[in-house]
Amino acid sequence: MSVMRNKKNIHESLPGESKKDVPGHIYENGPRSRTGVFLRLAALSLAGLLIGGAAALCGDSSNLGYVHVDMIDNSFSPQLQRIHKGGTIVFKNIGRNPHNAVAVDNSWTTEDDFGSLNMMGGDKASVTYPEEGVFPYYCTFHATPDQRVGMVGTIVVGDVDYQPQTHRKVEPVSEWTGVTRRVPSQYPTIQTAVDAADPGDMVLIAPGVYKEEVVVTTPSLIIRGEDRNKVIIDGEHVRGNAITVVGADGVAIENMTARNAVLNGFFWTSVEGYRGSYLTAYNNGDYGVYAFDSVNGVIKHSYASGSPDSSFYIGQCFPCKAIIHDIVAEYSALGYSGTNAGGELYLINSIWKNNIVGLAPNTLDSELLPPQREATIWGNVVLNNNNIEAPFLALTWPSFGNGILVASGLRNHIEKNLIINHPNNGIVMLPNLQENLWLSHGTTVKDNVILGSGRTDISLSGPISMGNCFSGNSYSTTIPFGLEQFAGCDSKIRAMMGGDLSMMMGALAMMMDAKLGNFEAGDYKTQPIPGPQPEMPEEMKKKIEPAVSPFESHSYLLENVSFHPDAEKYLNESVESGSYVGSMQTVIPGSVLSFIYHVFGFMLPFVIYASWTFTAFLDMHQRKESSLGWTAGLILVPFLGSLAYHLKGGSTLPDWLRRSMLISGGGVFLLVLMVAVALVL
Fold it and tell me: Distances in Å between the alpha carbon of 441 and those of 94, 427, 444, 461, 465?
């Protein structure tokens, strides 16, 4: 059965076994006859069979091992798992979001073993199945309780017949039916109105505080508040999401507020066609406005703040065919996070301020569709993203103090943004390390205005980057020097440039600080409460339409995009605070680890290179021997040239000096790097 094919790490030990009894050491105390060796091996084999047989007769089959089901963002892997009767499954969250597993019939839950429904990244829970049967289950945060759509799975126990069932998806409609279902005059709660609605209906919500969690599975609904600031869905820090749209295409949510959810304010997952407009989401425990595994969407005229992950998030889609336009994101860890998202994805004419980092498109192995690629960041104001009091998670801490941070993205486009006052970098491209090391390549950075950056205005970080281009930007410094000169967008030849290793080492130190808990995050529950936000105009309220093909219907937003309309005002109000000390400055905020890794991870290689090369030239001088080949090698091949000379070039330096010099410096560097990688992974 399946559980036998998945057994791992099942070993029996033999009591009293010593090193000399192991077949690999049979000659340790002198030669023995082949007959004795064979007899001993046969006895050991027979003893193993007897012990294994006795364990099988006396024990329960559930002790034979277990299989895994991984929780990723937001699905189970594998979705169908078969085990034997009495077997155990270990559910492990390998994603960033909280997850759980609950049987549709409520016969079991991961909460029984773990103690909470809220399993974070790295948490595990075991479930044992003593009876045969088929057990469908779901994540209460990211699926519907009937297991029809969302984050769902099935456990098949024993030798039973099982044929997966498919649910026919209700098709969306493109027009309003003319039916309006009013809350609370006709329906006491938003959920009852949503459940009663047919595709194309509008659910219209009167002012009030609604203490509920709404799950939408009917396509093409228009869910609208009568007053953006007075229609409030309050999670009271006990309910997961304000509104979750699961697998229902074409749903529009408009003109209301979501606050105090344990997870997300407004959440679409696994849909085609979505629209969020005139939304306010604040002090929610994960994301404010969130679209996951969803395509063809628009989020506009909205505000989100106080999220430990990001105010706005579009993730795991390619091509996304999505637009974020005219939004404000503040007091969160990330203003925008876009893991593994891109392809006709536009973030335009919005304001990102007072977060840990402004915008951070990124690649992670814990979600599907890596790498992140082909997003356009255009005409935004990115301001003062250095808020040490914002809520944040360990994973987001290394992004502190940057305006636009591209973590291992490909072929992104960053243009006409105003980026002001960031203690680390205005724009930075750097690698990201999870299961794989992902690099940043092929991004276009042009016509941006960057000022007030602490380390540098534009930073290309990491060991090597290819295909990135830089032109027409207003800036003071770049690292490395000469990005626009040697990698201009209009140049026919772009140099393959090495990146700024100091930023990479600093980010690695911040990852270690995050893993060790050497930071104090703000509490999302106590972040500033926003004032009244702009109401949906009456003219727009006359338009009642589902979110069918919103990307195409909003393509006019992509015409003639320029600087943000308020860019001039923010530029005039800015007070430049950058120090421009470049690579010699440790990352901000500093720590013991950031100093250690700045010295031993960034500066030590320069010292090693200088000492190896200097002593090689000194030795050649003392030998009164000139060699064009070795001279060229020492100059043109950093590290390897001088290493080869000291090992094979006939150096007259004492062996102990050469080996100490070569091994100590390189050894310390590698040790520091290995410790960091081991801790981060």
Answer: 27, 14, 9, 11, 6
Task: Give the C-alpha separation, 333 to 522, whole Å.
Answer: 9
Task: Identify whether residues 327 and 404 lie together within a single domain.
Answer: yes
Which of residues 123, 157, 191 is at a domain's end? 157
Residues 668, 527 within the same domain: no
Residues 561 and 615 in one domain: no
Residue 22 within a domain:
yes
Nearest CA to 229 out of 529, 527, 526, 535 is that of 535
Residue ranges making up the domain that contains 68 = 63-157
Instruction: Please state, as a whole number, how many other Cβ atoms lie within 10 Å of the Cβ of residue 103.
Output: 16
Query: Do 369 and 490 fall within a single domain?
Result: yes
> pTM of the prediction?
0.77
- Segment 237-260 shows an average pLDDT of 94
- Eight-state DSSP code of residue 552: H
Residues 665-681 have a mean pLDDT of 70
Q: Check whether 326 has a pLDDT greater than 60.
A: yes
Angle at 190 between CA 187 and CA 191, to 5 degrees: 100
DSSP alpha helix (H) spans, 447-587: 483-486, 501-516, 538-541, 550-553, 567-573
| Residue of 621 and 571 predicted with greater confidence | 571
Share of the chain above pLDDT 70, in %: 84
Residue 483 sits in the same domain as residue 609? no
Q: Is 543 inside a domain boundary?
A: no
* Residue 11 falls inside a structural domain: yes
Kind and range of the H or E element at 92? Answer: strand 87-93
What mean pLDDT is reported for the chain?
83
What pLDDT sits at residue 494?
Answer: 67
The answer to whether 472 and 491 have CB atoms below 8 angstroms apart is no
Tokens of 258: 């979501």
Q: Are 302 and 278 in contact (CB under 8 A)?
A: yes
Is it the case that residue 25 has pLDDT exceeding 50? no
Token pair for 25: 């050491």
- Helix (H, G, I), strand (E, B), or coil: what is residue 545? coil
On whether residue 475 sits in a domain, the answer given is yes
Q: Which amino acid is at 304?
A: A
Strands 469-471 and 444-446, by their bridges, are parallel
Clarify whether residues 51 and 67 are in a common domain. Answer: no
How would you class 530 by CB atoms within 10 Å of its CB: exposed for 0-12, middle for 13-18, buried for 19 or more? Answer: buried
Residues 597, 613 share a domain: yes
Q: In this structure, are strands 287-292 and 102-103 parallel, antiparallel, or unpaired?
A: unpaired
The predicted structure's pLDDT at residue 347: 98
Is 524 found in the same domain as 471?
yes
